[in-house]
Design goal:
Layout (H helix, E strand, L loop, with lengths): L9 H24 L2 H7 L4 H7 L3 H24 L5 H19 L5 H4 L10 H20 L9 H18 L7 H14 L4
Helix pairs in contact: 1-2, 1-4, 2-3, 4-5, 4-7, 5-8, 5-9, 7-8, 8-9
Length: 195
């Protein structure tokens, strides 16, 4: 009798548990503050077991960021699937981006707000490649928008992603929803603010 392919192996479950615990501890204590021993203890494992799956704390950080980055990428791709109007696609992607960042409250949020020169050297190229893959979605969306002549689409992309991601610092649940923030910001960019 063959094993059910949809059921993760014990090794896959252990690895996922380590990533989940690391995500929480990196968020609470910061990357420097959370040791591999802390992570092993919280995962109810021996430190050697953690090193079996991840050869260094930087590799574990990459696993956390990769998981979060791919989840957010898939969230945006799934949200815009089937939509054809360029502005509706752009708004939907902005909502998915903002909701994803503000709902999770996880360490991978640093992926969007930490400058690349602060990434650990050993994982920097992989992090930048994943960020570039994510940004390609927005490059395509912005390329499809009917904009007036002379608008720099690169600066528009940087403005949109930067402004939406910066909400991590000032977002308050009791004031607005992530969706309302995304829609309002995009609306101001689209229509302008001058009277």
């Amino acid at each position: 009798m063959s094993a059910d392919k949809s059921t993760p192996s014990k090794g896959e479950q252990a690895k996922a548990r380590i990533i989940s615990v690391a995500e929480t501890l990196f968020n609470k204590q910061g990357f420097d503050g959370a040791s591999m021993r802390d992570i092993a203890a919280a995962a109810e494992m021996q430190a050697a077991s953690v090193y079996y799956y991840f050869e260094s704390k930087e590799e574990l950080l990459w696993a956390v960021w990769e998981k979060g980055g791919i989840e957010l990428l898939n969230r945006v791709v799934d949200a815009i699937a089937g939509k054809t109007d360029p502005w509706q696609r752009m708004e939907t992607a902005c909502v998915a981006h903002t909701t994803g960042l503000l709902d999770w409250r996880r360490a991978n949020q640093a992926f969007f707000i930490m400058p690349p020169w602060h990434y650990p050297e050993s994982i920097r190229a992989r992090v930048i490649a994943l960020r570039d893959e994510y940004e390609k979605i927005f490059i395509g969306l912005i390329d499809d928008l009917p904009l007036r002549k002379g608008v720099d689409r690169r600066y528009l992309r940087l403005t949109v992603i930067g402004a939406l991601s910066w909400s991590l610092f000032w977002f308050k649940k009791e004031r607005d929803t992530p969706a309302a923030i995304a829609k309002q910001m995009l609306s101001m960019l689209r229509t302008g603010i001058e009277d």
